[in-house]
Amino acid sequence: MARYFVTGATGFLGGALVRRLRAAGHDVVALVRHPGKAGPLTALGVTLAEGDITDRTTMTGPMAGADGVFHCAAWYQLGVRDKSMAYAANVEGTRNVLEAMRQTGVPKGVYTSTLAVFSDTRGRLVDETYHQSGPFISEYDRTKWLAHYEVAVPMIRRGLPLVITQPGVIYGPGDHSAVHDAWAGLLAGRLSMVPEQTAYCWAHADDVAEAHVLAMEKGRVGESYIVAGPRHTFVEAVEMAARIAGVPPPRRRVSPRVLRAVAAVLRPIDRVVPLGGQLSPEYLGAIAGTTYIGDNAKARRELGYAPRPLEEGLVDTLAWEKAELARRR
């Protein structure tokens, strides 16, 4: 059995990864900012190390002697006024984790990048060789691009034994992202409209967690692997969820042209009075017919990655969402 150091263990993907590692009998050291709030990790037998990725000195001690590092922690928000933590966490935080890994001599690491470094692929199904340099739809896209290409890749070239994973949309029980908001809104009858043409690659959190383990065990150092799931438009995903849940799907669909026009009208207002959330120009731009889609053939071939179909993964996801809805009521 191995000893792994994990960042982002209190998050959605990181939590799924830690559960998988512990189920396999591995020792896990998790970097957490507030150990008193990490009860679920303690219950799993995870060793908690108080610290933060923005402070490299808090990581070198707990990381020393690890057989591998999983860097999953990241900042992800759309439409917020204060974006200062995006660069601090996604770029400098990644630099700190990887420098600590180099300093402590950890033999292998897995860094969670994202399909978002490719930004809007405009309908193209791209692979790991695809590259673009902007413009970026969101601050998340921009800072993850910087972390990928200006931090991780250069350090690999200088000899860091790192593998990069690139998930797309991650869904599943326990999610509290905008994807969860869509499922919850659908079940409650509040999801009145969906964007046309917007498409993602949808992967269940447990499958993405398994892909990270496979990347650690089988991934070639220096390589990137798209570990996204099957491709579906947002309309297809919502209609599929409605069939499974037995609820009516939203009837209204909004075109990318309309969403971009609304974003343009709201942009000057947002500069004066921050709108936030789903009314923010950044959020509207991110769903205006954008496609974040990538080919996972390399991960299937080299790692044995096998993500489940979206329809299968939505069954336990929607069951959890229904239970959450009943609890809140």
Structure commentary:
The structure is a single chain. The chain has 329 residues and is of the alpha/beta class. The chain has a domain at 3-172 and 202-229 and 293-308: NAD(P)-binding Rossmann-like Domain (Rossmann fold, 3-Layer(aba) Sandwich). 46% of the residues lie in helices and 16% in strands. The protein has twelve helices and 13 strands. The strands form three sheets. A seven-stranded parallel beta sheet has the order 3-2-1-4-5-6-10, sandwiched between helices. Strands 7, 9, 11 and 13 form a four-stranded mixed beta sheet that branches. Strands 8-12 form a two-stranded parallel sheet. Strand 4, helix 4 (84-104) and strand 5 form a beta-alpha-beta unit. The protein starts with a strand and ends with a helix. The mean pLDDT is 94.
CATH superfamily of one domain: NAD(P)-binding Rossmann-like Domain
Strand content: 15-25%
User: What name does CATH use for the topology of one domain?
Assistant: Rossmann fold
Please identify the structural class as seen in this structure. Answer: alpha/beta
The count of helical stretches stands at: 12
CATH class of one domain, please?
Alpha Beta
- Rg over C-alpha atoms, rounded to the nearest angstrom: 20 Å
Number of distinct beta strands: 13
What is the typical, i.e. mean, pLDDT? Answer: 94
- Tell me roughly what share of residues is in helical segments: 40-55%
User: Going across the major beta sheet, what is the strand order?
Assistant: 3-2-1-4-5-6-10
Shape: globular
Distance between the termini: 44 Å
Residue windows where pLDDT falls under 50 for at least 5 positions: none
At CATH's second level, what is the architecture of one domain?
A: 3-Layer(aba) Sandwich
Question: Quick one: biggest sheet?
Answer: 7 strands, parallel
Q: How do the helices and strands follow one another from N- to C-terminus?
A: EHEHEHEHEHEEHEEHEEHEHHEHH
